[in-house]
Amino acid sequence: MLEEQGPEWMSEEVKTGTTIIAVEFDGGVVLGSDSRVSAGASVVNRVMNKLSPLHDRIYCALSGSAADAQTIAETVNYQLDVHSMELGEDPLVCSAATLVKNISYQYKEELSAHLIVGGWDRRGGGQVYATLSGLLTRQPFALGGSGSSYVYGYLDAEYRAGAGRTDTQRLVVDTLSLAMSRDGSSGGVAYLVTIDGDGVEEKVFLGNELPTFYDQ
Amino acid sequence: MATLSVSRAPLGGFSFENCKRNAVLEADSAKLGSSVPAARKTGTTICGIVFKDGIVLGADTRATEGMIVADKNCSKIHYISPNIYCCGAGTAADTEMTTQIISSNLELHGLSTGRLPRVATANRMLKQMLFRYQGYIGAALVLGGVDCMGPHLYSIYPHGSTDKLPYVTMGSGSLAAMAVFEDRYKPDMELEEAKRLVRDAIAGGIFNDLGSGSNIDLCVITKGNVDYIRPHDEANKKGVRVNELETLCQTGDYKYKKGTTGVLTKVITPLNLDTVGEHVQTMDTS
Question: Please, what sign has the CA dihedral across residues A112, A132, A105, A28?
Fold first, then answer.
């Protein structure tokens, strides 16, 4: 090849081509993501943590264009800081989700990122909000990213309302593992964040620690 | 007070003012038969690692214009602040100007805060600027430095996304360099080992990528000290021609030797100048 073109990522936009999940349980939420960031066919970051903090007990999961998603998360982080200082108390998860929705809706045509917001507040306990295409809806669980298509059925079948903390964590890790093994744009390690009234727990599952299924 | 013209605050977003002018220029030059000069890309290999005491940044030194090497020894490691340096890949003008703008803003910011700037600050400024231009500024950067919180290394993409990692590579030779890193990187390496690893990664890019070449520049940043080694390794040294060796003169000596032009007459006229007066006025610095 005589043409000096370089790898695709020089011209391609960097996308997170992801699997992201958020599931509510009795007293909190569990958020999970994979760690692959791709640009074209190259993986530019194999250990990216896509669970980004918006506030002490509110996290969001990033998917879609990396630049757009990072910018939205950082902007909302800043706006929530100001909001919580003005209020003098911790913000509601609904407020965080509304701020994300406002940006996603206003710049709907220009941005291509989807953020799932999950967290815990005193008024409503654990909550998960989806903000795809600028809508705002509270759901018991939400999926996003290219790998989510492969595991909608699994999560629909396995989700139990009122499940406990460890069961929900196991469900999220299993779902992530299945999606990562089937989706080419998802992979790497699995990040898990569990948020409840007592605080935030962050966990990483390395490649060999992920649960295996029939083909492994 | 009445003003002749109302000045409008600059609108945000990309300024498309020059696009019409560029289109006219392109059409005109096509009529004359010449072509618009192509943007010079650095077609590069740049990389950085975090080692025990700080950061090592590395870059090759070839700048290409299409298939021609425009500059055999260009400097791709740019100064941002005394403790922060930035390697740039992509369009040469974009990386040059972007790093200069952020360097200038950081200096003002540092004067305002009274502190040495942090790498995270430089990262935020760069990513917010690149996002504002939605990828039209083709600058892919490796930003590294040591601040009060320790050594930090970021990779910044043209659309404005960033990654904070212990080792990063960018440019057309990035895949070759990353292969070397993935094989041999260890956390908390010693200085010499780290320099050798970065040198080998850049060499991987230089020898396996057409867009990278020439020499290897290194920049070692530790707390309170910067070592800008240019060149660290002349991987592609130009050979000496046989004739020159015999006549013992430098290649390409284009100076005329003394005596080439014959001197016919020489007239020396001393100028007698009188000092009329001396007046020193001190500047009022109060």
Answer: negative
The helix or strand, by DSSP H or E, that contains position B226, with its residue range, turns out to be strand B225-233
- Cβ pairs bridging A and B (under 8 Å): 64
Report the 3 state secondary structure along chain A.
CCCCCCCHHHCCCCECCCCEEEEEECCEEEEEECCCEEECCEEEECCCCCEEEEECCEEEEEEEEHHHHHHHHHHHHHHHHHHHHHHCCCCCHHHHHHHHHHHHHHCCCCCCEEEEEEEEECCCEEEEEECHHHCCEEECEEEECHHHHHCHHHHHHHCCCCCCHHHHHHHHHHHHHHHHHHCCCCCCCEEEEEEECCEEEEEEECHHHCCCCCCC
Per the CB < 8 Å rule, is B172 touching A9? Answer: no
Distance of alpha carbon B190 from its chain centroid, rounded? 27
Mention the CATH class of domain A20-215.
alpha beta
- Strand B162-164: give its sheet, edge to edge: B77-81, B84-90, B139-147, B150-156, B162-164
Task: Report, as residue numbers or ranges, the catalytic residues of A.
Answer: 18
The pLDDT tens digits of the residues spanning A114-164 come to 999 999 999 999 999 999 889 999 999 999 999 999 999 999 999 999 899
**Residue B78 contacts residue B88 (beta carbons within 8 Å):** yes
Residues of B with catalytic annotation? 44
Query: pLDDT tens-digit profile of B11-46?
Result: 566 667 777 888 888 888 878 777 766 666 657 899
CB-based contact B169:A76 (threshold 8 Å): no
What residues does A21 pair with on adjacent strands? A32, A143
* Prediction ipTM score: 0.84
Q: How many residues does chain B have?
A: 286
pTM: 0.79
Interface test with A, best of B159, B165, B212 (most A CBs within 10 A): B159
- Alpha-carbon distance of A91 to A96, in angstroms, equals 7
Quick check: B88 and B46 in contact, CB under 8 A? yes
A39: nearest CA partner in chain B: B157
| Nearest by CB: A67 against B41, B131, B174 | B131
